Amino acid sequence: MAAPGTPAPAPTPAKPAAPKHAPPAPKAAVIPKRPYPLECTRNIGIAAHIDAGKTTVTERILFYTGLIHKMGEVHEGTTVTDWMEQERERGITITSAATTCYWTQKPEGGVYKAFAGVPHRINIIDTPGHVDFTAEVERSMRVLDGAVAVFCAVAGVQPQSETVWRQATKYSVPRVAFVNKMDRVGADFERAVGEMRKKLGAYAYPVVLPIGKEDDFRGVIDLVNKKAWLWDDSDEPGMNYRIEEIPAELKDAAEMALAELVDAVSNKDDEVASLIIEDKPVTAEILKKAIRRLTCKIEFVPVLCGTAFRKRAIQPLVDAVVDYLPSPLDIPPAQGQDSGANPILVKPEDAAKFCSIAFKLWSDPYVGKLVFFRVYSGTLKKGDMIYNPRTRKRERVNRVMMMQADKRIDLDTVHAGDIAALVGLKNITTGDTLCNESLDVLLEPPTFPEPVISMAVEPKTTADRDKMSEGLQRLSEEDPTFRCFTNEETGQLIIAGMGELHLEIIRDRLMREFKVEATAGAPQIAYRETLTKPAEGVGKFIRQSGGRGQYGHAVVTVEPNERGKGVEIENKIVGGVIPKEYIPAVIDGIEEAVAGGVYAGYPVVDVKVAIIDGTFHEVDSSELAFKMAGIFAVKEAAKKAGAILLEPIMKVEVTTPDEYQGDLLGDLNRRRGKIHSIEVKNNSTILSADVPLSEMFGYATAIRSLSKGRAAYSMEPRCFDQVPASVADTILDSAKKRPAARS
Question: Are residues 349 and 497 in the same domain?
């Protein structure tokens, strides 16, 4: 009862009665608990020049993290990530392989108290080093958060090292560097670091120093922790190592290197700089956090060293992956566009809407088409619907898997930051965004180089024809740098790719995976055409046949465009001299003429075409007539515009003993090569040259013959350049006789 004089409390309003058939209140979405925190996830790639030791490094990491219990060797064909028959036979990586391992730092290894004893999940992609398979590196870099760039301690920075470094820079991928093969004769850690700075422009500084080199390499000095990691020959798997004080004879060198490291970090990091200005000590934890910040911002490259083959100093590398490379939370969110081309940030949160990118397709003989995807936000469960903004279609997810190279582990849920694979999706291409339908965002797909070499293929029997068509279609879906098409003039099937080895592997896979026997012509070059001066052309298509005729008249101008800019077509029609509805037909005609070539039947590149004038007929004009007028106008203009032929030029680097230098120089000159530099390194000579691709066929055999098998070479595409007139005449005659060679 209320006290006297106190007003009675207001009655509580009664709750309205619920309708008898009211729907139940919606349940809050349940976010599945992730097995590993996002900050303890690393998505990394292993990238380098061919034969720098990427696959061996990966194999050692998988062993020391406990994923495998026996180490394989590349030369024995027993590694986890080189699982294709073609890879094991040739001892090279052809396709990027994804695998997942787990690493828990020992307290004496890392400095971060938060990281010591905490398991980290590391998703690894081992990428190819051969230039013919550069697309595998390109699409892997698109989805990675960090990379380990492997360098040979003897060869230093090699041509493909520069290529993968540029690819990592293109996609803003933070890196740590690992100088491998420290046990090899001629290993030089300091020179390798110097070449990273000079050739790659990297702000690279060692965080470890080698203890010994060549046969005497036995460990590393951890500069940050001021400790020595030592291995000995008694421990074959490299599992047992000692962490002890730095040997007295190496203390001065370690102190100088640490001072250089702190100075380099202070130039970029305000916290370390202020400590130095205030004359306060820079502790190991402060220094390591600063290195991590700079590495994640791509302003610093920590450099480590070791020997994967001899199983030494791999554990510090895995510690560095955890300590220095970013988690998905440490890098800027992925950026995409909505249907109105407005920018959208995709934040790495499990509670956000699902968004991912399909970066690789693969035909698995057991489960069919696999779609590898990287999750940027949200979660995906079996049975969920996903949406493809490119096709505007939805599909149900029936099976989600984690890949361990060629082995598959079924999952119920994947979370933000994960790399996994889907089975059974249709109409998916490399670079497609897969997301929640209500999000409708397009992420930037990876870009790929154009094929530079082609050949004609024919099935041996009629029974092989259908199988070959299916096989080539599936292979072209997997590999964006592989193209197949039919030559309209001859009806022959043409396959095009990045090099001789690339097409050889395609033919080998056709035989082994699709049981197709095929014969192939000699490889042909993907020549291009361009124009050298402005010109004007008039195109008329006039036909009278008694009834309604055909009338189309267009005037165009052509001029050279900047190299690499492609074909640009502009409509400059004013006053309606050509009605708007016929302009697309003229553009179609221009595009067809450009694609078919104006000089030798090869596609035209890097030209500007403008439609400037024309006339039409009220009755007789049609889209077909204006399309033909566009073709005729471009053809006439090209005759006056100085059409030339372009050929792919390769950047070639030859490493040879000194005594064969003269013979190999002469051979490169005979192949129309332009020598750029001759460098002496470790009793070897390195020749750098630009050589036309057409002159490089059979070079592997020639270099072995000229050097008695002691020289080696590598090459990668550099640019397109004009073919000399004498050579162009020969190509023109050949193209007329063998139209199947055109690409």
Answer: no
Residues 199, 85 share a domain: yes
pLDDT tens digits for range 253-292: 999 999 999 999 999 999 999 999 998 999 999 999 999 9
Categorize the per-residue pLDDT at 93 as very low, low, confident or very high, splitting at 50, 70 and 90: low
706 and 622, same domain (yes or no): no
Dist. CA 36–CA 14, nearest whole Å? 48
Same domain, 235 and 102: yes
**Exposed/middle/buried for 12, CB within 10 Å: 0-12, 13-18, 19+?**
exposed
- Worst-scoring range by mean pLDDT, 14-28, 450-464, 580-594, 669-683? 14-28
Specify if 45 maps to a domain. Answer: yes
Listed in sequence order, the residues at least 6 apart from 604 whose beta carbon sits closer than 8 Å to its beta carbon are 528, 529, 530, 531, 567, 593, 594, 595, 597, 598, 638, 643
In a domain, 729, yes or no: no
What percent of the chain is predicted at pLDDT more than 70? 87
Total domain count, the chain:
5
Q: Count CB atoms within 10 A of the CB of residue 734.
A: 13
Q: Is residue 742 part of a domain?
A: no
Question: Rounded distance, CA 305 to CA 183, Å?
Answer: 10
Of 325, 321, 344, residue with least CA distance to 333: 344
The values of phi and psi at residue 533, to 5°, are -150, 160
Average pLDDT of the chain, as a whole number: 83
423 and 482 belong to one structural domain? no
Tally of CB atoms within 10 A around 626 = 31
User: Could you tell me the two tokens for 244?
Assistant: 């002890």
d(CA 696, CA 716): 11
Give me the domain span that covers residue 564. Answer: 532-642
Structure tokens of 202? Answer: 């990297």
For residues 49 and 177, state if they share a domain: yes
Report residue 570 as tokens.
Answer: 């502009």
For residue 214, the SS3 value is: helix
> Measured between alpha carbons, how far is 717 from 131 in angstroms, rounded to an integer?
8
3-state secondary structure at position 341? coil
User: Cα(699)–Cα(20) distance, rounded to whole angstroms?
Assistant: 85
Mean pLDDT of 332-350: 87
Same domain for 410 and 290: no
Residues 6+ apart with CB under 8 A from 95: 84, 87, 128, 133, 136, 362
Whether residue 537 is contained in a domain is answered as yes
DSSP state of 619: T
- The verdict on 366 and 463 lying in the same domain is no
